[in-house]
Amino acid sequence: MMERSLPNRCLLCQQTCLQGRGLCDVCLADGEPGPLCLGCSKPLPAPVPWRCGSCLGKKRWRPLVCAYPYHHPLGYLAGAIKIQRRMSLLSPLCDALAQRLEGLWQLGALPRPDALLAVPMHRRKLVQRGFNHSALIAVALGERLHLPVLNERVIKVRPTRDQHGLNGAERRRNLRGCFQVIPGARMHNLALVDDVVTTGTTFASLAATLRRDGHSVSQYWALASALNTVS
Ligand SMILES: [Zn+2]
Ligand SMILES: [Zn+2]
Q: Is 70 inside a domain boundary?
């Protein structure tokens, strides 16, 4: 069963919080990590130029926006939506990512995308789990940021192995040909959405599939990123 709402206690400090919100405002404010690298989500000492030293050296890159680094108390909780079905985390974590995005747009660090598209889940997995966490996150972000959500335009046509423990080449092979774009209007300036980005292979693979079919992806969004800690 999907969790409806945890007793209205904050998952971090156990203090009372609003019904349906798994985190209290104090923990959310205390946990705000400040500026993060738009390449790998590593915390930055100062915002400009929005990328850390190692990401600035990369020629081919797409901005990645995350609410938290994964190795951060709130970043770690991003994985609990999928794994522990903690639906009460969806709202506060999506609020945090939406606020970060609005801040970046205001500062001109990043353009607004035209639409959002979540990483799809194979239907067998969807039946097992009962929900696609990434699709729920995309819908929540679309509502908050007033952007269309085009989740139905891509499907996962074959199940894939858990990416955990696979090296880069194995991950790419695992995902090869697993996504399929439903024919229709051209999609431009998309932001791809997932819960946690670990190596970025899933985003890159989905973006490559979309590009092959004439669509364009301009950025990646996730609640948390482990990119700067994964080699
Ligand atoms: Zn709290
Ligand atoms: Zn970086």
A: yes
Residue 14 within any structural domain of the chain: no
Q: Which domain holds residue 218?
A: 25-229
Coil, strand or helix at 37: coil
Look up residue 207 and give its DSSP letter.
Answer: H
Query: In angstroms, what is the span from residue 9 Cα to ligand 2's centroid?
Result: 34
Strand pairing of 115-118 and 190-197?
Answer: parallel
In a domain, 184, yes or no: yes
Angular region, 108: left φ>0, alpha ψ -120 to 50, beta rest: left
Cα of 44 vs centre of ligand 2, distance in Å, is 9
C-alpha 93 – ligand 1 centre gap (Å): 13
Looking at all shown ligands, the one closest to residue 55's CA atom is 2
**Tens digits of per-residue pLDDT, 176-210?**
999 999 999 999 999 999 999 999 999 999 999 99
* DSSP category for residue 16: B
User: Is 97 among the domain residues?
Assistant: yes
What confidence score (pLDDT) does residue 167 get? 87
Centre of ligand 1 to C-alpha 14, Å, is: 6
**pLDDT value for 1:** 46
Number of domains into which the chain is organized: 1
Distance 40 CA to ligand 2 centre (A): 4
Query: Domain with 165 in it: what CATH number?
Result: 3.40.50
